[in-house]
Amino acid sequence: QVHLVESGGGLVQAGGSLKLSCAVSGGIFSLINMHWYRRAPGKSRELIASITTNNITDYADSVKGRFTISRDNAKTTAYLQMNSLKPEDTAVYYCRWGMTNYWGQGTQVTVSS
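Predicted structure:
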């Protein structure tokens, strides 16, 4: 059973930064791609960042240039560094284990204007 736990969310002013973590247990972390999604109020969940097993990254246009996804295989943890945050980045952020049904519980990010 794979278990994912996000942390690092919170309240930040526009222009600020946060770093989210996704700690993974129960699986072979180094062998699977990791993804970050978010669900804003009243919207569907969207894929915003992905990282492959060999550290190739991809981003949604809405976060490109501001967010950075990374991974530490030794710590079995994925990260999402979020800079230049905007009020429209307010959402619950989730990590996902590959393209499986294993998700974290989510962490709330609120950006005030």
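Summary: The first strand starts at residue 3 and ends at 7.
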